[in-house]
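Duplicate of earlier report; Lipase input re-posted below.
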Amino acid sequence: MTSRTSIPSQLAEGSHVAEIDGNRIHYEVRGSGPVLIAPTPGWGPSLGYMMPLPALERHCTVVYFDTRHSGESTGPERADAYTLGHFVSDIEGLRQHLGSPMVFLAGHSAGGHQVLAYGIAHSANLLGIICIDGIAAQDELRAREMLKMMESRRSHPFFQARPGFVDTAVQMMTGSDTTARTTDELFAALGPFYFHDPALAAGVFAAMQIDEAVQGYSRAAGFQRDNLLDGLHRIAVPTLIIVGDDDFICDPVSQGARIHERVRDSTLAVIHACGHVPWIEQPSEFDRVCDEWLAVMAPR
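Output:
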């Protein structure tokens, strides 16, 4: 077993900064084993909302990192620097900085979008991918599934007690309501849909740190709009796809199942009674799925 004293300084446990593409990229190292890089979603949340992920840290040296202009990382003050290609390039830059020839990747939501795109372009550098409620395509099927799941919430007591709540959210997500809203207002209107238990939303979103500037830049750049479906067959490494059965934004039908169909060496785990954030809503089942997969892929 490798001793902790032989680990490169850039992989020592704790907080670090790497210079990548002219930006200061902040990352946090936890755990031990093969390196696993975990980017934040790219549109503004800092890495704190993902930490800790104990099942990953039990098997891997997990490198959580703030994508450009998020959390403690810096980034350009222009929208054209926040395309999917820029985020993929930053993952590759961090891999090189860490001195790791082969790594695992794990990404949640738009972080899942990043790691799938990296796998399409750079499978030769990977040991495996964990895609957690990730998005591969924002197309008509996704729009239909999202609307269907939102409409199904009308019978839930949380929404029944709030007349007009579902109508407002549907109008926002379908584009018929274009009212400018702050991040807090967006979370208040849409947050409960992200959870099987909508009461969890207030506490989770209140604890998130969001960079408002990069949220605007990434939206203007069209980040998350790339359709990855036609390229997924080029991912040549084992891939674990985790999705909540009640995730309205990255649903099991338009995202999880289609990713699984196209990545030839993939495992699909649908977590019951779970929305978009499985390690918070169903932590035991999330850990079990990750532990079982990593016990094979990253044995200690």
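The longest helix spans residues 84-98.

Merging into the original ticket.
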